[in-house]
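Thread: Newbie trying to understand structure tokens

Hi all, I'm a second-year student working on a class project, and my supervisor (Dr. K.) asked me to get a predicted structure for one chain before our next meeting. I've only ever worked with sequences, so writing a 3D structure as a token string is new to me. If someone could post the tokens and maybe explain what I'm looking at, I'd be very grateful. Here's the chain:
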Amino acid sequence: MESKVNTRGSLRGDLAGGATAAIAAIPVELVYGLIAVMPLGAAYADHGLRAALWGCILGGVFAFVMRGTGGMLTGSRPATGLILGTLAAALLQHRDIAAAEDPAALVFILLLVCTMLAGAFQFAFGLARVGRALKYVPYPVVAGLMCGVASLMLLFALRPALGIPYAAAWNDAYGQWRPFSMLVAALTVAVCFGGAKVTRKVPSAVTALVAGTLLHHALVLVVGAYNMGETSGTVSSLLPDRSVGQWLMARADLSLFGWLSLLVPYALAIAAFASLETLLCLSSIETSRAVRLDADRELRIQGAANIVGGALGATSAVGNLSRVMINLSAGGGGRASSLAYSAVLASVVLFAGHWTGLVPAAVTAGILIFYAVQMVDDGTRRIAVQVFTQRGVLERRQYRVLLANFLVIVLVALVAVFGDMLKATAVGIAAAMFLFVRSSMKPVIRRVQSAATRRSLKVRVPEDMALLELEGTRIAIIEVEGPLFFGTADRLAREIDSVCECSDSVILDLRRVSDVDPTGGRTLVQASKQVFGQNRRLSFAGANVRVERFLCAMGLEACVPVAHWHHDVDSALQCEEDYLLVAFGSPSDHAVLHLSQTTLAHGLTASESSVLEAFLDKHLFDSPGKVFELGQKGESLFVATGSVVDIVLPLDNGKQKRVASFAPGVVFGEMALLEGKPRSADAIVQGPSTVWELSRDRLAEIEYKHPEIARRVLLNLSRSLAERLRATTMELRTAAEG
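---
Reply by user tm_fold:
Sure, no problem. This is what the structure looks like when written as tokens:
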């Protein structure tokens, strides 16, 4: 709701703003009022003008009475006029209407019924509180519709700008064009664009109306009326003489409502356009007055006004941004401005309606051209310029997004020009869905890595590490992100096929997958069957509980063994590394090693290994257990020969986090030996194993009694630390690239 209301002190501003906007509206309504009734012929020009002006007047009165948004002014819009014109042309082709006593009269009444129906839809939008939601229609769709409307306005203005009668066929245009009318239209356009530079107090369209009309009649005196184009029709009275109410009372026939099914699509299109225009106006008022407004309430008020207006003979009146801006700039900002707007319009119609016949059609055409050009906003122009000038400058993906948006604008505009506004609206909705799906279809593949560049946390003997570096490309990790649905699942399936051409094992990292739909689930099922059918391995890692349950429900559990489901990527990668190493003949984690096969004794002879063994303490584990724990004083290193050792951090919630694993034969805990500081984590042997311990004191004895063996042991420790440092650097680089 508004945070402040109009006060008596601003009444003068409201009167000035409403009056100025009304004067600026006159030439525009003379144009827009004709658009809707053009298919009905020249006889209905007066009816169209009165219906348009009557809609403006009723809209202002209704806004004041219903306490609408202060500063809001309504009026005809080219989009709604073109939709009504399209409807009129379609209705005239209907055989039931062609057989009516007065087809044009029936069509005109149905246009008013469509106005009422559009008002009902707009009112329903307000009740459903979808006002703000309409603002999320993609910009290219709105821009395309506006460009289409602008193009149709230019086509509509072309005949009168050339001095050709509205009803003339283009085949006969060459012999009917009037060069002097072109001069009048050109002057009108020039004044419209340049009038604001001369004076800001008078709207440029009003200045152009006066200047163009004076030039036209001056030329009539010089070259004669025959060499000039037509003039506009007069507005014979304020109140329309055709309305839905009069029609129903005169005929006591409700058959009009049998046409509702045909009118609904057109009414929905008008309601959507009207709501978007109104929201643009509200945004400008909020910015100008620093208030927050209730968009849904305004939609209900305007919807009710159009329901009543259609019943009383008015065509649709919607929020008009140009009039709102004129009103605000002239000092209007309260509800009284809408009443002043209606009063001035009514006064002009009552006391000067017959003078509208002096306005040349070329002048209204020039004003129409001006507003058509203004409808193509700066954003559309910038997109077009960038498409044609930035192809080699922007990144390829960025340029493709820009081009896609530009093509949507062009497509919607072309449908509006060569089809009709209703079809353009439908294409716009389809384009909105396309853009939504396209934006959701960001690359589902975050990156693809191999075990040659990404390792698990498991530290292995140098020979195994070298083998993984050489053959690690046989294991591929595909990181997936975002929703996995019908628009992205096929891309993932194709990536799996591509990776399988050079890899034996594939790990799908699903920790960044937010959601999966049935299409995504079934696509993964088919991909899994294909991978296993090629005697390759496929593992799933990191999926959240909801995603994993859904995939299992879709049948993935039946074709992917339980051992191939992992809680994180590291465990999956460790499993595939183990499988690859065993395939190449490396001992498995269950093989018991001799001390001479460990990294501690690497390079020692059998006799030297026996000497080293005499200085080590031997610990036997028949089952999993702790070798040392967090905070324990540390002055020794360890090496297990029969089982993997996990290094884990106890967490506050009672759980543990694994930070590293050491394969049998790999030294661990050496930092405490070198630094003498407390242990930084727990070390847990995962199965039956012998664990050898070398303390700092015993190492000192070896240095004293067997310096060559001590030198070899320290060299092995240095190499082990260097290898881990290199692995850490590789992980950091991988993380930075991700």
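A couple of things are worth pointing out once you decode it. The longest strand covers residues 505-516. DSSP finds 27 helices and 16 strands in the chain. Feel free to ask follow-ups in this thread.
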